[in-house]
Write a structure and sequence with these properties.
By secondary structure, this protein is an all-alpha fold. The chain is built from two helices and no strands. It has a domain of 40 residues.
């Protein structure tokens, strides 16, 4: 009976993972483009924030 449990666990995992993918392989292609776009926006925002931090650090050092 234990062998049945060992067989059922991987099968359940396969079906659960299949359910999370929502079917089509095209969604992965689209989501990859979306992730790249979001990543680019995050990188630009990160650079802007780093410049702002540097500017504020300079202002604080001048006031001290």
């Amino acid at each position: 009976m234990e062998w049945l449990l060992l067989l059922i666990c991987p099968l359940m995992m396969i079906f659960m993972m299949k359910g999370h993918s929502h079917g089509g392989g095209h969604e992965h292609h689209n989501s990859s483009k979306e992730l790249n776009t979001k990543m680019t926006k995050i990188e630009v925002e990160n650079e802007r924030l780093q410049r702002e931090i540097d500017s504020l650090s300079t202002m604080i050092k001048k006031e001290s």
